[in-house]
Write a structure and sequence with these properties.
Two copies of one chain form a homodimer.
Chain A lengths: L4 H10 L7 H14 L1 H17 L1 E2 L6 E2 L5 H4 L4 E8 L2 H8 L5 E5 L12 H4 L1 H11 L4 E4 L5 H16 L3 E4 L15 H9 L2 E2 L3
Parallel strand pairs in A: 3-4, 3-5, 5-6
Antiparallel strand pairs in A: 1-2, 6-7
The complex binds zinc ion (2 copies).
Protein name (chains A, B): Recombination protein RecR
Function (chains A, B): May play a role in DNA repair. It seems to be involved in an RecBC-independent recombinational process of DNA repair. It may act with RecF and RecO.
Keywords (chains A, B): DNA damage, DNA recombination, DNA repair, Metal-binding, Zinc, Zinc-finger
Chain lengths: 200, 200
């Protein structure tokens, strides 16, 4: 019972951040209060504006407060390439490789045991996006190199094959069982250049 | 340029938290946006209320939004013992040892090279607090076991000695050069029970 109610409330709220335990939350709360109140207030405002204002891009479904995200709004990008990823963080990772085509952001991967089928992760919207755009010559499946990510890529490749589209899978320069967003940019760039058509 | 302005603003603001770099801030921002908007809004509110509402306890100078902190407001604590620490986090650490006397929280330690003398860290207020309370039989100097913390303890012990008060220093069970708040509770409890009068 050594902290006052408002400080305890702040420590509890900071623990909702990923990777932040009790001790880290205490340090964060007290450091803001003792040394950076304006930083704490700025963070509060940024959180409120983001939580209230950020939705999803109309075309690629990534997080953005605008109708179109920066990648979809950029007219100079390559409209023949579409890269499919599992989440918004992966867009950031793939951008580091120098890729300058378009994106589609799934809501994770297929996970039948959790009841997450094609509809739950946005595969129908992906197919609609591809059909409406009409310019994609190749769809790069950059789901995570995990069992679920592979299965999701394979499922999408099958759907695309039925429509006569080329699907490619990023090369296994990325370590199996890892998360795409944790891979360094160089490795991911290699795995992009080494991508190959999916054989069904 | 892969995140929209509100998301970039949130990532930048999260980096003001201690120990949070660019990649961690990105994960935090996207995880809140994708999975826990209400948690993000709760954090914003907790930050605003704490940054605007938290001041300092009238008696011990620790952080609190009330006139008195929980430790000073508790009438069951021992009014013959005063523990002097360098910051609010140390109050939390000392509480874990089972100590149930009173506290005084300095603003850090003496640091002549940084121009931080006795006034800057609140030593005059400490002496006033001791004089006005009039019940303290022992003052436990629990500043950090660093060169600066030792010097600060020695300086205060000298002032107290001039007034005929007993000053004690927590035993060196705590590792030299470390930070009090990083010491585990057991070690700190040992160092409390092994405290001894300061010989000048
Ligand atoms: Zn978009
Ligand atoms: Zn107090």
């Amino acid at each position: 019972m050594s902290f006052s109610p408002l400080i305890r409330q702040l420590i509890d709220a900071l623990r909702t951040l990923p990777g932040v335990g009790q001790k880290t939350a205490q340090r964060m709360a007290l450091q803001l209060l003792e040394r950076d109140r304006s930083g704490g207030s700025r963070l509060a405002l940024a959180l409120t504006q983001a939580m209230d204002g950020v939705g999803h891009c109309r075309l690629c479904r990534t997080l953005t407060e605008d109708d179109l995200c920066p990648q979809c709004a950029d007219v100079r990008r390559d409209d023949t390439l579409l890269c499919v990823v599992e989440g918004p963080m992966d867009v950031y990772a793939v951008e580091q490789t120098g890729y300058r085509g378009r994106y589609f952001v799934l809501k994770g991967h297929l996970s039948p045991l959790d009841g997450l089928g094609p509809e739950a992760i946005g595969i129908p919207q992906l197919m609609t996006r591809i059909a409406e755009q009409g310019t994609f010559a190749e769809v790069i499946l950059a789901t995570n190199p995990t069992v679920e990510g592979e299965a999701t890529a394979h499922y999408i490749a099958q759907l695309l094959s039925n429509k006569g589209l080329i699907a490619s899978r990023i090369a296994h320069g990325v370590p199996l069982g890892g998360e795409l967003e944790l891979v360094d940019g160089g490795t991911l760039a290699h795995s992009f250049s080494g991508r190959r058509p999916i054989t069904l």
